[in-house]
Amino acid sequence: MTPTTIDAIPFTNLTTEQEGALIARHVLPHPHEPGRANAYLAPGGPSVAAVIRSLRADGGKIGATASSWQITDEAVRAAIAYYRRHRAVIDARLLLEDDAWDAEDA
Q: Which terminal Cβ of the chain has fewer Cβ within 10 Å, N or C?
């Protein structure tokens, strides 16, 4: 799944305000690593970036990703909503992580 196909995931018909409330319920800034790319799911859940990486690997299946991380479907939807608002920085984080992993394999 490519970054652009996240937009193709059947998501919700939420208004911008409702989407913001969903994000507010589930997404927190990282206490020790500032920046939108480091946001994570509460309480003590995975980073939004990790959820997006898993969602891509799971072919966009929200339920499969939720099950993998033992979080709710709503939390995955919150991660998607947050990602859609901050795509550039989260994609940059994922790219840097991929680059670091590739360097370890070299």
A: C
Q: In the structure encoding, which two tokens stand for residue 76, read together? A: 């995955």
Residue 39: name the closest of 77, 81, 90 by CA: 90
Quick: pLDDT tens for 5-59: 676 676 667 888 999 999 999 999 998 988 999 999 988 899 999 999 999 999 8
pLDDT score at 43? 82
Distance separating alpha carbons of residues 9 and 89, to the nearest angstrom: 20
What DSSP letter does each residue of 41-104 carry, written as one string?
Answer: ETTT--BHHHHHHHHHHTTT-HHHHHHHHT--HHHHHHHHHHHHHSHHHHHHHHHHHHHHHHHH
